[in-house]
Amino acid sequence: MTFVSIKNLTFRYSKRQMPIIDNLSFAINKGEIVGIVGASGSGKSTLLRIIAGLEQPEKGIIEVDHKVMMDDRCWVETEQRGVGMVFQDYALFPHLNVADNIAFGLHKLKRSERKEQLREMLELVQMTEYAKRFPHELSGGQQQRVAMARALAPKPSILLMDEPFSNLDAHLKAGIRTELLQILRKAGITCLFVSHDQADIEAICEREFCIVANSKNNSCWC
């Protein structure tokens, strides 16, 4: 069942430039983990930012869970889209401990509900015993798990992951990939996963799109 639908999406940074995303269409099923692989600067991260509402495309239609996020008449603001995002630098708040980082997006919940959701997220990413630690006291893999929990805590419709392994040492990647896949499966979340590393995509995703440069030096999708 189609859960995320992207139709005829076009984006360029200025009117004088060729589109970095040109008439892109694809769909994601509910609970599916889909990868996008391509070189740096090919438009992968830009696509995630567009879906999240952080960039506005020239044209196109985005639907999530049968709700229009954008088309030629509608634009839903980022905070109303129900999208979770994990950035490549994790973007954790250094002055907040693990528990407070995860609970940051739960301020609209009642105290009892917020406490229960925090407990569930800590258990999901196996960080319960680290709840009072601060980001600088964690390893790279632990910081990533906290970023995952913070993104998942508000129960988003879709999770967008932008190069989540780029800051990890190569020897840690295999284990972290396995952990991430287990978390995604347990959460049952629909996920769009961006990486320049084919091995990341193959380890995590059920299917993939690739981006290659064409003769006009803009990106095309396959």
Give a description of the structure.
There is one protein chain. The chain is an alpha/beta fold. The protein is 30% helix and 27% strand. The strands form 2 sheets. It has a 6-stranded mixed β-sheet, with helices on both faces. A 4-stranded antiparallel β-sheet has the order 2-1-4-5, covered by helices on one side. A hairpin with a 2-residue loop joins β4 (59-64) and β5.
Question: Helix and strand succession?
Answer: EEEHEEEHHHEHEHEE
Low-pLDDT windows of residues: none
Q: Biggest sheet, in brief?
A: 6 strands, mixed
Strand content: 25-35%
Helix content: 25-40%
> How does the helix and strand content classify structurally?
alpha/beta
Total number of beta strands: 10
The coarse overall form would be globular
How are the elements arranged and paired?
Blueprint: E1 2-11, E2 21-29, E3 33-38, H1 44-52, E4 59-64, E5 67-70, E6 83-86, H2 98-103, H3 111-124, H4 140-152, E7 158-162, H5 170-187, E8 190-195, H6 198-204, E9 207-213, E10 219-221
Parallel strand pairs: 3-8, 3-9, 6-7, 7-8
Antiparallel strand pairs: 1-2, 1-4, 4-5, 9-10
